């Protein structure tokens, strides 16, 4: 895989399996802990309520799944990911959280979700949409499994419209992020972020894709000056 070619499903899976042991620590260091705030905002925008059935797509090590589960005190939450190594970290983390007992972890590709139509009252996806090999299909699947009027909040990197900030973001990822990853022997895995962001549709395009997938409402909220964003889709 060269940095400009789009990786296959298997290559994406390998990237995340490889970085499982350092994934959480790197996110905390690189974002100075701020990714937890962005994740809380995504849960709020998903409109999760105590009796809901919730779904966290591309759940990885489960940060968003745990936040959803805290909000959904009387319902069930499903965390879905195709990386067994990241799911294992999520399950280890759950053992340190005995009060959270409403999560089911599922190893699956989010492009073929193992759920019936109209199952979920709310959903989240953190840093997943940019990584799936077929974004329109992922949005169609989310639309299929959500109940009518339910929301999904999709958090991901975004290129800011301010060109100086966009350059600073690119520099930060190519230098700080990749150099820190090099220390752990994971250069290639983190060097993949910038090209994946170059290919990722901007907020306006994401809104159109959401509408095309059948959602009644689509809003994109820029975060931190537009270096991140949350796409909120309502079925
Ligand atoms: C939450 C973070 C990363 C998630 C993440 C997403 C991916 O798609 C990956 C793919 C492959 C490997 C790893 C990942 C991955 O970890 C961390 C976000 C950190 C960002 C670089 C944002 C940092 C913002 C800071 C507040 C600094 C701002 C710097 C400025 C723009 C100069
Ligand atoms: C950057 S991580 C995000 C993890 C977590 N949601 C978070 O916010 O920290 C991206 C995740 O998407 C998962 N992923 C990518 N494509 C997927 C697919 N087609 N099906 C299931 N999981 C996928 C990866 O395994 C990885 O766990």
Summarize the SSE layout with pairings.
Blueprint lengths: L8 H11 L3 H8 L4 H11 L8 E4 L5 H9 L5 E5 L2 H12 L7 E5 L12 E7 L8 H11 E12 L5 H21 L3 H5 L1 H7 L3 H10 L4 E7 L4 E7 L1
Parallel strand pairs: 1-2, 1-4, 2-3, 4-5
Antiparallel strand pairs: 5-7, 6-7
Helix pairs in contact: 3-4
Bound molecules: the ligand C/C(=C\Cc1cc(O)c2ccccc2c1O)CCC[C@H](C)CCC[C@H](C)CCCC(C)C and S-adenosylmethionine.
Ligand LLAZDA3J binds next to α1, α2, α7 and α8.
Protein name: 2-phytyl-1,4-naphtoquinone methyltransferase
Keywords: Methyltransferase, S-adenosyl-L-methionine, Transferase
Pathway: Cofactor biosynthesis; phylloquinone biosynthesis
Describe this structure in words.
- The chain is α/β, with parallel strands linked by helices and 235 residues long.
- It has a single domain, classed as Vaccinia Virus protein VP39 (Rossmann fold).
- 45% of the residues lie in helices and 20% in strands.
- A 7-stranded mixed beta sheet has the order 3-2-1-4-5-7-6, sandwiched between helices.
- A hairpin with a 4-residue loop joins strand 6 (217-223) and strand 7.
- Helix 3 crosses helix 4.
- The longest helix is centred in the last third of the chain and has 21 residues, at 163-183.
- The radius of gyration is 17 Å and the shape is globular.
- The structure holds the ligand C/C(=C\Cc1cc(O)c2ccccc2c1O)CCC[C@H](C)CCC[C@H](C)CCCC(C)C and S-adenosylmethionine.
- The ligand C/C(=C\Cc1cc(O)c2ccccc2c1O)CCC[C@H](C)CCC[C@H](C)CCCC(C)C binds next to helix 1, helix 2, helix 7 and helix 8.
- GO terms for molecular function: methyltransferase activity.
- Belongs to the class I-like SAM-binding methyltransferase superfamily. MenG/UbiE family.
- Methyltransferase required for the conversion of 2-phytyl-1,4-beta-naphthoquinol to phylloquinol.
- InterPro entries: MenG, SAM-dependent_MTases_sf, UbiE/COQ5_MeTrFase, UbiE/COQ5_MeTrFase_CS.
- It comes from Cyanobacterium stanieri LEGE 03274.
